[in-house]
């Protein structure tokens, strides 16, 4: 009797098992490189835009949503409805600017309707200010209502820079993809509520500010307020847009710094440091591109705010001797809002630049290198050198850096101009005093003119009386 020993003939072929792994496992290399472990993430609340892992624990690296655009979407939508940002999105994550697109045609129609409306009011001689009394300070206040129309120039400037803004948004998509490949999850950016609040609150506050300013300073019709409301919303929504861009840079820099610090606490490859360095270089480039893409728009906005604040404060100071009146409420409101907006523009850019470069350098300098091997120490030193050689300041096209020093310089220049204007006002003689002198001179001249005929008549009478007496004696 023979016994069956092998089952080779019984199962000639290998059955395929679905949804299983291969039994053979390769041996790990004995010379394991430093840091071969994925860094642990700091626990945080799951974002609504987080990408769900697949069943086989693999992560799909395809971007289904442009996270940066989706978080700032309310403000972008408002800018597009106002005809300021003719951005075209052919698909998710693809932003572009086409001069023949529907968005551009719509923006041109809105803008030319606004220009035509302002021209119509001017041609029909709808003069908002007819209350000037001839004083120099009153003339300066009149100019404010012409200066309020200057933001109309921002719209075509924004059209010109829309292509560069689209390039920055596409750069953010690339940053998201690189971050997800490195960390294994989507970028945890939660700015949607802030963006929605800005898109709702700014139009309400801007409309209220314009109404208060015009009611307290001049008498006007409801038709005349429309262009001023539109341009006021335009000015302050651009400030909200700038705030969200800078806040995005700050949050991403903090997330990247925390992830890098967590990665260095574990044993893993030195190549991880190189990957984080490449990701930081992307973020640094996005910081510079943000300033370049909005160069001419915010250069004009800063100069416009400087002019508005100077004229408004001068209007307040020029009549401070007469007390705070109803007309001064609009001037005070305009000056306060302008100063706050200019401060936030400069402060947010300063804060973003500091987070991208200075705070990241602090993380690198605090790294303990003694327990690392030579390769890891070299990578960290190269990372630190990269942060020193790559500028991360937000510069408006190289004209000037947007930071707190800019705000300080503008305030110093503003004080200089205010002193000059006040000195010029003091040097001009008072109109009332001049008028009184003119009336006194006129009265004296009239008196002289009235007395001269009487004197002549008296003289002629004396002569005739003398001649008559002489004739009687003869």
Keyword list:
two-stranded antiparallel sheet; disordered N terminus; transducer; 1% strand; globular; 474 residues; mainly alpha; 2 strands
Radius of gyration: 38 Å
Strand portion:
under 5%
From N to C, what is the helix and strand string? Answer: HHEEHHHHHHHHHHH
Largest sheet: 2 strands, antiparallel
Low-confidence stretches: 1-44, 46-63, 128-134, 432-457
Major sheet: arrangement of strands: 1-2
**Percent range of helical residues:** 55-70%
Q: How far apart are the termini?
A: 202 Å
Describe, in plain words, how this protein is organized in 3D.
With 474 residues, this protein is mostly helical. It has one domain (69-431). Helix content is 66%, strand content 1%. The chain is built from 13 helices and 2 strands, in the order H-H-E-E-H-H-H-H-H-H-H-H-H-H-H. Strands 1-2 form a two-stranded antiparallel ribbon. It is globular, with a radius of gyration of 38 Å. The model is unreliable at 1-44, 46-63, 128-134 and 432-457 (pLDDT under 50). This is Gustatory receptor. Its main location: membrane. It holds the Pfam family 7tm_7. InterPro entries: 7TM_chemorcpt. Gustatory receptor which mediates acceptance or avoidance behavior, depending on its substrates.
């Amino acid at each position: 009797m023979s016994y069956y020993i092998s089952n080779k003939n019984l199962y000639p072929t290998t059955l395929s098992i679905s949804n299983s792994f291969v039994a053979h496992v390769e041996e790990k290399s004995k010379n394991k490189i430093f840091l071969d472990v994925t860094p642990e993430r700091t626990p945080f609340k799951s974002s609504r835009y987080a990408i769900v892992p697949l069943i086989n624990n693999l992560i799909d690296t395809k971007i289904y949503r442009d996270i940066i655009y989706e978080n700032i979407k309310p403000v972008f939508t408002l800018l597009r409805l106002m005809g300021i940002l003719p951005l075209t999105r052919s698909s998710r994550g693809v932003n572009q600017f086409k001069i023949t697109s529907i968005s551009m045609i719509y923006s041109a129609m809105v803008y030319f309707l606004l220009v035509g409306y302002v021209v119509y009011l001017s041609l029909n001689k709808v003069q908002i200010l007819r209350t000037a009394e001839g004083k120099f300070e009153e003339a300066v206040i009149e100019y404010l209502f012409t200066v309020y129309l200057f933001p109309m120039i921002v719209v075509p400037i924004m059209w010109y820079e829309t292509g560069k803004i689209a390039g920055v948004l596409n750069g953010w998509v690339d940053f998201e993809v690189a971050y997800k490949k490195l960390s294994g999850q989507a970028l945890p950016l939660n700015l949607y509520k802030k963006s929605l609040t800005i898109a709702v609150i700014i139009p309400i506050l801007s409309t209220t500010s314009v109404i208060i300013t015009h009611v307290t300073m001049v008498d006007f019709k409801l038709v005349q307020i429309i262009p001023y409301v539109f341009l006021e919303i335009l000015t302050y929504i651009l400030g909200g847009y700038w705030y969200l861009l800078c806040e995005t840079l700050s949050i991403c820099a903090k997330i990247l710094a925390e992830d890098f610090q967590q990665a260095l606490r574990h044993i893993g490859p030195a190549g991880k440091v190189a990957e984080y360095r490449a990701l930081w270089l992307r973020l640094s480039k996005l910081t510079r591109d943000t300033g370049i893409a909005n160069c001419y728009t915010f250069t004009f906005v800063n100069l416009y705010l400087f002019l508005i604040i100077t004229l408004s404060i001068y209007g307040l100071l020029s009549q401070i001797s007469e007390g705070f009146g109803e007309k001064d409420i609009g001037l005070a409101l305009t000056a306060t809002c302008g100063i706050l907006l200019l401060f936030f523009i400069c402060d947010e850019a300063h804060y973003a630049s500091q987070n991208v470069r200075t705070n990241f350098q602090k993380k690198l300098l605090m790294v303990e290198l003694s327990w690392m091997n030579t390769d890891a120490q070299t990578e960290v030193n190269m990372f630190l050198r990269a942060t020193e050689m790559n500028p991360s300041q937000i510069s408006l096209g190289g004209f000037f850096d947007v930071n707190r020093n800019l705000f300080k310089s503008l305030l110093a220049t503003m004080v200089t101009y205010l002193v000059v204007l006040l000195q010029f006002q003091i040097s001009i003689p008072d109109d009332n005093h001049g008028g009184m002198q003119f009336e006194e001179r006129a009265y004296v001249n009239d008196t002289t003119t009235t007395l001269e005929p009487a004197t002549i008549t008296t003289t002629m009478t004396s002569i005739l009386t003398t001649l008559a007496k002489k004739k009687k004696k003869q």
